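Sample intake sheet
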Amino acid sequence: MQTSADRHEYPAHWEADVVLRDGGTARIRPITVDDAERLVSFYEQVSDESKYYRFFAPYPRLSAKDVHRFTHHDFVDRVGLAATVGGEFIATVRYDRINANGMPASAPADEAEVAFLVQDAHQGRGVASAMLEHIAAVARERGIRRFAAEVLPANNKMIKVFTDAGYTQKRSFEDGVVRLEFDLEPTDRSLAVQRAREQRAEARSVQRLLAPGSVAVIGAGRTPGGVGRSVLDNLREAGFAGRLYAVNTAFQEKELDGVPAHRSIRDITEPVDLAVVAVPAEHVPEVVTECGEHGVQGLVVVSAGYAESGPEGRERQRELVRHARTYGMRIIGPNAFGVINTSPGVRLNASLAPQMPRPGRIGLFAQSGAIGIALLARLHRRGGGVTGVTGVSTFVSSGNRADVSGNDVLQYWYDDPDTDVVLMYLESIGNPRKFTRLARRTAAAKPLVVVQGARHGGAAPQGHAVRATRLPHATVSALLRQAGVIRVDTITELVDAGLLLARQPLPRGPRVAILGNSESLGLLTYDACLAEGLRPLPPKDLTTAASAEDFHRALSQALADDGCDAVVVTAMPAVGETSAADAALAEALRSSALEAPAKPVLVVHVELGGLAEALSAAASTAPQAPERAPGAAPAPGARFHPSDRSPAAIPAEPAPDSRLIPAYPAAERAVRALAEAVKYAQWRTDAGEPGKVPEYEDIDEKGAARLIDDLLARGEGLTLAGEQTAVLLGLYGIEVHSALPAPTADDAVVAAHAIGYPVALKTTAPHLRHRADLGGVRLDVADEEQLRRAYTELTELFGPPTVLRPVVQAMAPRGVDTVVRAVIDPAAGAVLSFGLSGAASELLGDTAHRLIPVTDRDAASLVRSIRTAPLLFGWRGSAPVDTAALEELMLRISRLVDDHPEVVAVSLEPVVVAPAGLSVLSATVRLARAPLRDDLGPRTLPVV
C-alpha cells in the first residue's frame, strides 16, 4: 500500500475488471509501491522497439529512480494504472499533471501528460483503448480536463489509440514528435466508440464460450449418471464438432467411451478453450487454477454450493469470480444448467439437457435451469400446445450469473446472424440501466421477449447479486417496454410470442381479419382482439362444410384486402376428418400465405393435433425419430436418442423466406401474441424517429452547477428550502409560485396584502399536504374578512398553526391538477414520472414513466399514456388545457436532472395546467453527491 508520505489513500474504486477485444479479461488497478518487482519483470518482457517508442531512445532497463517514480503516486497529480492478468502486469498507463509551460503542477492546473506501455504479446487486444477510458475517468475525477501526449510518428498503433477514442483533439508536429492534445469531456462520438468497443468485446467473450474448438469436462465419472458424466455424454451424442476431453483425478484409463481421458487438465497437450466444471465446490478453486495456467478461455460451472446456499456460499462465489478473472477467464454459473449451440459447425450441448434441440433462429436465455428445461421442451413439443415452427440457435442457462449475465448474451445476440428472435427468462436484472440501453439497441434490430420471475417476491433469488430498486415492478416493466422489450407474464406467453415473431412478418397495424369454419370460435377471437386493443374486422364464417379450397380462397381474399394487417384463421375438426384432410388444409393455408408475404397469419385450432403437425411439417423442433421398417413396431420402452442418428441427419431449419404458420390451441393465446407483435412493430416505427432533446436559451446550466456546489458544500445530502428550490428551478426556466408563511392570522393578512387578493390559504403539514380532498385548502379568498374566517376554520378543524404550517399563495388560473416527478433510482437510473394529482390517481396507480433524458416525442407520449389523459383534452365538453406547456415543463425537468447528477429527486405538486399556460404551486428538490462512476463511465465488469 502507499506510504504515509502520499497525499491520498489508495482509491479502491478505481479497480475494475474489463473485457478485452478478443473476449479475454484483465484487471485494471492503481500501481502502488508494492509493485516494484512486477514493474521490473513487466519491463523486461517488453521489446526494445516498444521501449524506444515509450522513451524516444534506447532504454534497456529501468533504473532504481525510474522504478521509484513509476510506483510512487499521490493519486491526484501523479497517477499510474496497470492492467494485470494472472497477477502480472501486461500494460501500464500514467499521467502527470502539468502547467501551461509543461512543468509538474498541482490543481488548479487542469492538463496532464499521458503515456502508455503495452507488453508486445498483448498488443492488438484493445488493452490501451480500455486503459485510456479508465485513466481519463480518473483524471476527470481529479479535476483534469485535458490530456497531452507526445508520440513518435512511427508509433502508428498508439496514435490510432488516441485518434480513434472519439475525443475532441488537436494535433501538431514539432521536433520530430507528434503532439496530441484532447479534451476529456465525453462527446457523443467518444461514447459511441466506447459502446461499440464494449459490444464487440463482450460479444466476443460470449462467442468463445458458445463456439469453442475444444471442451474438457472436469468431473466426468466412469459410470453413466452424475452431473459431469451426463454433460460429457450430451456433448458426445450431440456430435460436438471440436475436440472433447474427459478429466477426473481418479482416471487410470486413457479413454472413456471413445473420449480421451486425463487425470488433470494439465496433462492435455493441446489447447482447451472451454472447461465444464462439475466437481464439488470445495475442489473448484484448484480446478480454476489449473484451467487458468493451462490457458483455458472460459468456464461453465455446473457445481452447486455457492450463493444459493447462504452467506458462506456467497463469499465462495465472489472468490470464484475473482479467481477466474485473474486468469482472464469468464464464467457461466455457478449452479448453471449449461449452454447449447446448434450451429452445424459447432453442435455444442454442454448442458444437462439430454436432447439437442433442433437448429433454428431463436436465442434462449434462462437464469433458472428448471425454466430452461421447460422452455426447451415447449419449443420442440409437437402438437398439444403451440406447434413447433422454429428451433434454437443458442441457449444459455446462467444459474447464479455471477459473471456472464443476460447483458453479455444480449451483446452477442445483437449481431449474431444465426439469431432472429431473443427470448429471456429473468429472475433479476443485475444492472437494469445497462440492460435497458442494450435492450433498446437490440430491439431496434430483432424482437426481444422477456418474462420476469420473482416479480412479487420482494427479493431476488439468493444466488443473484442485484442493485436495490425503489421502483415498483409495474414501473420497471413500463421502462422496459419503453426500451422496446416485449414484456409478457408467463413462459407460455414467452413461447407464444417468440414463435410468431420467429417466422411471421411484423404486422403493419392493428387491423385483424378473422375467418374460419366455426362462428363461435370466430366470435371468441373477435372479443379477444378487442380486449387486447386490436381492431378486428367482422369474422367471416366459412361454415363447418368448408373445404381446404374454401380456406385458401378466403385467406387469399383477406390478405389482399388493404384494410387488413393480419389474419387469424380458426379451425374446428370435422367428424371423421383424416390426416390427409389436415395436410390438405395446412397446404392450402401455406400456399395462400405465400401470396402475401408481408402480412402475418396465425391459426387457432381446437384439439386438432393433425392440423397442428401438418402446419409445422418439417419445421418441428422436436428431434425426429429414426426411421423404422414399414409396419415395424418400436421396441418396448424404446425412445429416440440423439446418438441413434448422425449429426448430419438433424433436419435443417427451413429457409428464412418459408412461411411456417404457428397454430395455437386457444384464441386468447394467438391474439395476445399478435397484440404484442403489433405493439412491437409500432415501437420499431416510432424508434426510427426518436425525437430530440430541445435546447432552451434561457437555461443557465453553469449557474445551476455553481449553486448546487455551494449548497452541497453545506452537507452531504439535503432537501432544499422553498426559496432555494425556486432559485434552482428558475435557472432552468421553471417558475414556482411563491408561498408566504402565515404562522398567525395577522401574518396571513400581511402576506395577502403583499401578494394581492384573491389568494389561496393552504396548510403544508405533511399529513395534509397535497390533500385538498381533506379540506386543508381555501381558494379564492377575496378580502381580509374572508381570510381571517378561513384561517379560524382551518385551525379549529385541524389544529394549531404550529402543526398546520399555513401559507398564503396567489391564486392560479383554474385548470387540471397534475404531478411531475423525477428520481434517480439506484438500479434503473433517472426516471421522469407524470400523473394527475389526487387520491384517485394514486389509488389506481395511474402514473406514466420515461427514462431521462426525455425527448420531445417522449414528453408528448408521457402526457397521453395515463388512463385519465382525456381530462387534459376536453373530456365531456371541458376546455382542453395547455399540454404543450406541460410537455415543455417535463423537458426542462429532464434537462435539469440529466445535466446535474447531484439532483436526485424533484417533485412538482400540484402543477395546475390551464387552457393557456400552467402554474407550479409547490416544488421540492433533493441534492446528493454524484456517484464517482455511472453507466457513462469506462467499461467495466460488475463488481463481485
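Comment: The longest strand covers residues 88-98. The chain has a mean pLDDT of 87.
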